[in-house]
Every structure is written in structure tokens, then in C-alpha cells.
Amino acid sequence: MAIKPGEVTAIMGKNGSGKSTLAFTLMGHPKYKITEGEIEVDKTKINDLAPNERAELGIFLANQYPAAVPGLGSTSFLWQIYKKRNKNKTNIIEFREWIETQAKALDLNLDLLKRGLNDGFSGGEKKKMEILQLLVSNPKYVILDEIDSGLDVDALKKIALTVAKVAKVKKIGVIIITHYSRILKYIKVDRVHVMEAGLVKESGDSSLVDRIENTGFENK
Amino acid sequence: MNHLVKKGQKINFDEVWIYDKVGQEGLVEIRAVVEEGGEFNAKGKIKIAKNVSGINAFLKFKVLLLGKNSRATVKPELEIESNDVKASHSASIGRVDEEQLFYLMSRGLSRQKAIELIVKAFLN
Amino acid sequence: MIKDDYKYGFSMPENYVYKSQEGLSQEVVLKISTMKKEPLWMTTFRLKSYEQFVKKEMPTWGADLSTIIFDNIHYFVKATDKTEKEWSDVPKEIKDTYDRLGIPEAEKQYLGGVKAQYESEVVYGSLLKRLSDQGIIFCGMDEALAKYPKLVKEYIGKLIPPGDNKFAALNSAVWSGGSFIYVPKGVKVDLPLQAYFRINTANMGQFERTLIIVDEGAFIHYVEGCTAPIYSTDSLHAAVVEIFVKKGARCRYTTIQNWSKNVYNLVTKRAKVEEDGIMEWIDGNLGSKITMKYPAVVLAGRRAHGEILSVAVAGKGQHLDAGAKCIHLAPETTSRVLSKSISFDGGRASYRGLVQMVPGAINARSKVVCDALIMDNFSASDTFPSNKIYESEVTLEHEATVSKIGEEQLFYLMSRGFEEHEAEAMIINGFIEPIAKELPMEYSVELNRLINMQMEGSVG
């Protein structure tokens, strides 16, 4: 599978087909061990790299079920990430204002920014928090793991458009993992892979999405 | 492991659960209802040995005190010497839930009958 | 006799020069009292306490106290400008911590035990004048006994009688130093009173006795100790703190303890809370070899409320046995306990608590939450709560959790570019945040930095 900068790849498949496992493996989750094959990012082999080393190479994973870290202030966390990932550091006051603007654009309640990271957040609020982290991480490759689950239509549209815009401007390589085609209405997809039982069963262009929408995953 | 302590009765409970093998899991819930003049004394210890991992241990005590002179002494204890574990316990002691009581009585049951039902459900 | 030009109780008058002596006996106790020129009732109090001390057994529970040799302890305090220690005697680890925390030179000397006095008079003299203008008494216990004997006699030993436990008896026999505070009715002290400012050797002494009386409707926040490690050659610290919170009054007592790793820190702290009164104990335990400390609230009046927030970080060679006691004696009383502990590098942190509700404590409510983090397989954590409920019309909730740092949390933070130790530090700071946020700002910042430093130095 090849992900090119500026291109959007959709990975689809039923529940249990291995999509999230792939996402975690790309990010280096300790629960998954690679027994065969290689992952390369800009010609660097990353199989043995720790998650933070992969983040340094520009990989960003928006989790399906983000963990909560109570007591770790959300805004403060975003600021820490920003400082790590951006050279032209702004000051914290400007940063805070900028974050609030982004949060408002996503319809995220500003009070949540004062809370512990994802502490007591609803599923949709956690997804928006992932997007805020994406915006401060300055990534080269973004993996969205079922970003659409838990979001209402308006939120989904806002997030999809935000990602599409940033990806286009910064030429980010995007992987969208989903088993619904809803989000794909708002982001132009260049390539589609369909997974089943941990393997890529079929690949194609965006027309594959329409076929799946009509006939489901069972066919073929 | 549920107990109904009647008037004048004293029930003592003292147990230790030892986790010393990798991957052991345990979920224990002990409930007691203490009638007026009864006494429930319980101690439950979860002990996790050194160098075991993947343990998941949970102990819960729930005690209902029904009347004047109902007494309960509850001591859930943890002694943990390994770190790759999840161990927790909880204890709650108190009277019959007013909301539940109100609900049942509003359906026509007498206070006495409502309490009987709640106790029965609690101990089931 | 003590003269009146005693300058708000800062330094000890010159005629207090004690001799160092080892071992404890009735004679030693008598000598302490006569040298301090105490009234007869106090001498009697000390002597009776000594008898209790001899009679009482060592506790059979808690940490291992078997290595305390009472005969090797100095029961007198030397109050001169210089101590017997040299800067070169102070352990390197402690000096390094001072440097990393950016502690000013003069403070380093004091904390390291090299200088006995801290020149804080100039800075804090005006502060204390402001307080005394409001009728607030804030002085050392020795001075309080001399200047306000009736007040002291009315309260001392009433909440923690000498017979309470062996170390309370010891303290009652040989106490020296500590703070005395009286806040008059309705007076709300707007800034935290810090014992750290009123420094005397006596305040960092082995057998401090503190007595605080907050009269009806008054408020005080008292802060004791500091996060920077204090190097003490005295290995036994047995302090007693008694607090009386009167009707509608509120007291917050914050302690951060970071004694050097040779110290046995055995403290008896108790507050009695009257109707509508509030008592808050905020307890940070970082240092010492062994700490046994269970801040207690006796909720004596209707609607009295008590809170105990405690943080314990037990590293190599440490056993911190800390907790809380909530005694509900009256109706509608409420209590809340939040205990967070971290053990690493072979340390052991234990929570030991008691919630008691007597017959008649109708509608009393209590909630206890204990969370423990064990960082590695060499460390340990215990929870020993005791809930004695003798009244049915009440609610008690208790929960405790012990675990390691969450793998998911660690992965999540690392995936955002943070190294493993950075991610751990963030999780740990988040873990103690509910308590750290209750501390005065400087303490909160120092506490976080100190814990992170301690973790960094540990075996992975």
C-alpha cells in the first residue's frame, strides 16, 4: 500500500476486518508486533520506532477511542504538542486565542478546553479534540480511524472539510478508515482499499465507494 | 455471597483472596442487609504477590442498614506487590434508597412491603 | 520571664540556651520544663505524659518502627546561630535538588541544617504587625505558653490527650516549638500563614506542638513545611497538631513534608469541628524513611464538614503509611477523603483510614476515594480502610484503585511526539492534579517538578 503526500486513501471494510489494527500498527502501538513486512515513511523504515519517533517523522493518528488523561489540562496539552512540532513558536496568549477560534469552528464547547484531556468528553467531543491535536501537530501523514463514528451530520461535515482543507494546503497524505461512506462525500478520495480478515481484498479508485454503498461489503 | 443479618445476630466475615498466578482475574461482590439490632462485620483482603502480571481483581461490599441499632464494620483491604495489575475495591453502606422506596410506595405498596421487596432484590 | 519586646515571636529570647543530651528520663523532662521556666501545670502535664509514654506499647500495625532507639535521641534543642553541621555534611542528592529547584543561597543553608536561623524578620515583620492589629495571635508555642497561659491550658491536650498513643505521649512530655494561632470571632485571614516564614530551629524541630484555635465564623489557612528536602540528623520527628474549629469557622491546614530519607516522621494531627464548621487537611508526603500520619477530623457539631486530601510519593527505601480519620458524632455531618499515592523504585505507599459514624449521626455522609499508582514491580501499595457505621440513616461510599500507568494513555501521549518519560510525567502530574491544585501556587509548581525529578532518577 502506498500513501502519497497530498493524496487521500480510504480504507474500508466490515467491523473486525483489521482496519484499526492497521492504524495502530502504523503508529507503533505496543500491543501489535510486526512479524512480516515493512513500513517506510519517506524512505525511512519505521518498524522498530517508538510512537514518539514516528510522530517526529510526521505521522498523526486520530484515534477511534481516544484515551482520557484526567488532570492533564487540554489547552496546556495542545500547547505542549504545538511547541514540540512547530519551529515558529508563537506565544501562549496568541496560541490560546487561536485554539479557541479553531474550537469554535468545530462547534466544540470552550469549557472543555479547561478540562482534563478527554475527561468526561462525549464520543463526538473526543473526535473534535483529535482534530485540534491534528491542527497543532503539523503532520505529513494523517490517519483518521473511524473519525465519523459518534458524530452528527453537521459535525462530520465540519471535520471533513477542515481535514480536506489542511490536507490540500499542506500536501498531507491522508488515510481515512471508515465503514460508512458518509465522510467520503466531503473529501475527494484518490484511492480505495477494501479490507477483509486483515488483508486488502480489493483496491480501486473512488468509484469503488459507490459500488460498496450500493451492494455492501459482502459481494465478491 | 449475600447475608441477611437478623435482629440480635452478628455475622462475621473474613476472607483473603490471593492472586499469585499470571493473568488471574477475580470479581467478588458481597452484599448484606442488616436488620434492626443486627451486626455485620466484614473484612476482605485482595493480596497480589510479587512478580505476577495481568491481574484483574475487584472486590465490592454493599451493605443496607435497615433500622436503629443496625451496625456494620466493613474493611476492604488491598496489599499489592506487583505493578502490572488492576486492583480495586469499593464499599458502600447506607440506608434504603429513598427514590426506590418512593417509587414502590407510589405504586400502592406499604412502606413495610416496599422495603421487603427492595431487600429481596438486593440480596438476589 | 519572657519580656514583652519579644517582636511578634520571631526568635527565641537569649536566655534559652539548651544543652544537648541523649536519652529520656523523668529528670530530662523536668529539666526541659525548668529551663523553659514553665508554669507548674505544664511541668505536671509533661511528667504525666512521660509516664504514659513509658507505659504505652509501640503500635503493632503500620510501618516498621523497630529500629527506633529512644535512648539515642537528643531531647533538647540547641538554639544558636550555627549548628554543628557543615555544608559538606549535607548529602549531595539534597544539594542537587536545591540547585535544580533554584533555591536561594540563604535558604539552602537553612534547609541543609547548616544555619539555625533564617533572616526573615525584616521581610515578615510588617506582615505580622498586620495580623496582630486584627487581634490574631501567631507565635511559637513556647511564647504562647508564656504570654497566653490560660488560653493554652484551656486547649492543649484536650483533643489529643497524652494517652492517645505512644508518640503523642512522647511529644507531650518533651515538646518544644511549633506554632500557636488564635483567630478571633469573624476574622478572616486573607493570606496563608506560612510557618516557613517564621523560621526557627524550633519550627523544624523534632517534637513540635502546634495548637490552632479558630473562633466562631473565622477563617485561616496555615501552610507548613516545604517541598525542598530538609536535611535533618534527628531521626525521629514526633509532632502533634491540635486544631479547634468553632461554630461556622473554617480552617485549612496544608503540609508538604519532604524530610531526608533517614527520618521517622510520626505525626498525630486532629481537628475538632463544631456546628457548621469546616476543616480541610491538605497533606503532601514526599520524604522521610517512614511516615505514619493520619489527619483526623472529629465532626462534633451538626453539619460540620471535614476534608482530607493527601498525596504520598514513596521511593526507594521509603514506607509512607498515611491516611485519614473521619469521626461523625453529629447529624448531617459530611466528610470527604481523596488519597493519591505513587510508589516507585521499591517504595511502599499505604493508605490507612477510618470512617466512623456513631448512633445518632443521622444523615451523615462520607465519601473516600483512594487511587494508587505502582510504577514498577519492585514497589508496593496497600489500602487498609476501616468503616464503622453504627447508624443506619447514613451514606458511606468508599472506593480504591491500584494500577500502573495506563498503557493506552502512554501510547496516546507518545504518539503526539512525547518521549516515554515525558509522557509518564504528564500522566503523573494529571494523577495528582486534584490535590496539587489546592496548594498555593509555588508549592504546586514545586511539587510537580520534584515528583518528576524523583521519577527521572529512578530505575525504569
Protein architecture, described:
- The complex is a heterotrimer of chains A (220), B (124) and C (460).
- By secondary structure, chain A is an alpha/beta fold.
- Chain A has helices at residues 19-27, 51-56, 74-85, 92-105, 123-137, 153-170, 207-215; strands spanning 8-12, 40-41, 44-45, 59-62, 69-73, 116-117, 141-145, 173-178, 191-196, 199-204.
- Chain A contains seven helices and ten strands.
- Chain A has a six-stranded mixed sheet with strand order 4-7-8-1-9-10, with helices on both faces.
- In chain A, strand 9 (191-196) and strand 10 (199-204) form a beta hairpin.
- The radius of gyration of chain A is 17 Å and the shape is globular.
- The relative contact order of chain A is 0.20.
- The model of chain A has no long low-confidence stretch (mean pLDDT 91).
- Chain B has one domain (2-95).
- Chain B has helices at 98-106, 111-123; strands spanning 2-5, 10-19, 25-34, 39-48, 55-65, 71-80, 85-94.
- Chain B is elongated.
- Chain C is built from eleven helices and 18 strands.
- Chain C is globular.
- The interface between B and C is medium-sized, with 35 and 32 residues.
- Strand 6 of chain B pairs antiparallel with strand 17 (380-389) of chain C.
Distance between the termini of chain B: 10 Å
Percent helix of chain C, as a range, is 25-40%
Compressed to H and E, one letter per element, the order of chain C equals: HHHHHEHHHEEEEEEEEEEEEEEEEEHHH
Number of strands of chain C: 18
Q: Give the rounded overall mean pLDDT of chain C.
A: 85
Percentage of residues in DSSP E strands of chain B: over 45%
Tally of contiguous helical segments of chain C: 11
Low-confidence stretches of chain B: none
| Helix/sheet category of chain B | alpha/beta
Task: Encode the helix/strand succession of chain B as letters.
Answer: EEEEEEEHH
What does the radius of gyration of chain B come to? 17 Å
The spatial strand order of the largest sheet of chain B comes to 1-3-5-7
- Alpha-carbon Rg of chain C, integer: 22 Å
Overall morphology of chain C: globular
**Overall number of structural domains of chain B:** 1
Described by its quaternary structure, the protein is heterotrimer
Average residue-wise pLDDT of chain B: 92
Strand proportion of chain C: 25-35%
Overall helicity of chain B: 10-25%
Report the sheet with the most strands of chain B, covering strand number, pairing sense and barrel closure: 4 strands, parallel
Low-confidence stretches of chain C: 1-17, 78-82, 117-122, 197-203
